[in-house]
Amino acid sequence: LFFFFKQKTAYEISACLVGSEMCIRDRLFSHPILTIKILAILIRNGLIQVSQFLKRHILIFLAVAAAIIIPHVIKGQHTPQVQKADAIFEFAMYWILLGVASSIGLGTGLHTFVLYLGPHIALSLIHI
């Protein structure tokens, strides 16, 4: 996913964009159609890279997927631990996504309290 963050020229994205003299840093409002075209090309290139990665590492991918899915499907003595692991994973993903949202400017003022501090304080008070 890091290829999205590297600043690229139109030539580095696709040869069909060379004449456009457009860079990724150009704004959506100044060239909306071209920006959407570049986005579509980036998404396509990203999906191609992901599929190539999965093809090269298919056995590892299947083993990890099986290790995650099988404990959820087969019920037994491990079920409480699986539920606890799910809760920890959800909690971690919540904070990671809020961190990303905050880094793009969605965590200022009241949003910071509602999204970050409020749930954390409530969860802490419930467990006391």
Task: Briefly summarize what is shown.
By secondary structure, the protein is an all-alpha fold. The protein has helices at 10-13, 32-56, 58-73, 79-103, 110-127.
Walkthrough of the structure:
The protein has 5 helices and no strands. The protein is mainly α and 128 residues long. The protein is flat and about 55 Å long. The two termini are 40 Å apart. 2% of the residues are buried.
What characterizes the major β-sheet? none
- Name the helicity range: 55-70%
For the termini, the CA-CA separation is 40 Å
Q: Poorly predicted ranges (pLDDT <50, ≥5 residues)?
A: 1-5
Would you list the SSEs in sequence order as H and E? HHHHH
| Overall pLDDT | 77
Outline, from the CA principal axes? flat
- Tell me the number of helical segments per DSSP (H or I, 4 or more residues long): 5
**Over the alpha carbons, how many angstroms does the gyration radius reach?**
21 Å
The helix/strand class is: mainly alpha
Q: Give the amount of beta strand, in percent.
A: under 5%
The number of strands is: 0
Which keywords apply here?
mainly alpha, disordered N terminus, single chain, 128 residues, 0% strand
SSE blueprint:
Blueprint: H1 10-13, H2 32-56, H3 58-73, H4 79-103, H5 110-127
